Every structure is written in structure tokens, then in C-alpha cells.
Amino acid sequence: GWFRRLLHKPKPSSVESSLNTSRSASSSPSSSSSSSAESSSFSSSMSLARSIRPSPMSVLDISASGSARWAKSYDVCICHSEVDLELVEELVSYLESQPESFRCFLQLRDAAPGSAVVTELCDAVQNSHCWVMLITPGFLQDPWCKYQMHQALAEAPLANGRTIPVLKDVDRKDYPKELRSLYYIYMALKENSFRQIRDTIMHYLQELCRSSTSRTE
User: Fold this and answer.
1) 3-18 per-position pLDDT tens digit
2) Which stretches of sequence are listed as region Disordered (predicted)?
3) What proportion of the chain, given as a percentage, has pLDDT over 70?
4) pTM: predicted TM-score of the whole model, two decimal places
């Protein structure tokens, strides 16, 4: 009876507004809409991305010698098109200069000379905790980017925060169908987007370490 009364209890206007915002923030861009609706959806997704803040866990907690973070060679693998290399190098420089000293895999920098491209891409995916997909017009036209995206999805089908789509200069209708179940970051202001990416990686690593600690206890 109390549960039924709770369900029928009128919701405050602030709660209704929050619920409406959450509904409009779905990142599954399969339905057609006007350009204004697309802008609204992008803004909502950006707002949700900004709301992901690392839990109050110190840098030492994820960087301790016994941390689950060290089970893989890299914290994040950046999947991108070669035409976006300059932007990606800025992102990698930002992440690696953070207090957490994130370990980034950048293909043109970290791939072993003479090794097969397919082998390097698969190894990078398997040996990274998170995967940032910088989805640009160049990404959509690059078969190797799509291959790496599919490898990441095969590695973690339910994602759980490991796959981080970042859209730049791409229409909502062109967002890859394979990623439509995931929230994305829309890169408008570069500095804000870099911070969102950093916060999302940090959030996942904290959850990973917390889960690992719980299992050992």
C-alpha cells in the first residue's frame, strides 16, 4: 500500500523538470528531428557528460602499486583518423600532464615499427582500460578506425564506461549505429571536452579500483 501511494504522489515541479531533461538527453539518435532538436540533444548529452565527476578518491588510491589500474599497459587508447592527429596530440598531452599521469596509447607514436597494423590495433584495445573514439568525418571514412571501434565493442559489449565516444564536426544522423546505446561527448569547446574526457576516464578507473578492492576483501 505505501508503495502504491508513493507512485501516485504528485512529483514536485523540480523533479518533473529533471526527469524531462533526462528523457531528452538520450543519446540514441535514431529518430529524425529538426536541427534545433539536434542542438538540444547535443547540449543535453554534454550536460550529462559534465555531471560525471570522479568520486572522492585520491590519486594515490588508483596509483598504488597494487591497484587494478596496473593490470593493463594503458589507461586509455585513442582511436582517431590520421587527419585529426594534431587535435589528438593535444588531448594526449593534456591527459598525460594531469596529476594522475594517464597512460595513453597513440598509434603513430606507440606502435612497434615493423609490426602488423591489425596486431597493433588489437593489442592496443586489449591492453587499455578505456577507449576514446574521436568521431569526425575522417573517422567515418577510415576503415581502420571502424575496425578498432568494432574491436573495442567486442572486448566490452556492455561498455560500462570503457568506450567514450567524442563527436566533432559530425551531424547527429551520422553518429555510428554501433554506438547509439552510449552517451557521447560533443566537442564544442576543446578545453571543456578535454576535461570531460579526463573525468570520464578517472571515474572508470576509480570504479575499477573500488570493485577490485571489494573483491579482495
Assistant:
1) 555 555 454 444 444 4
2) 1-41
3) 69
4) 0.71
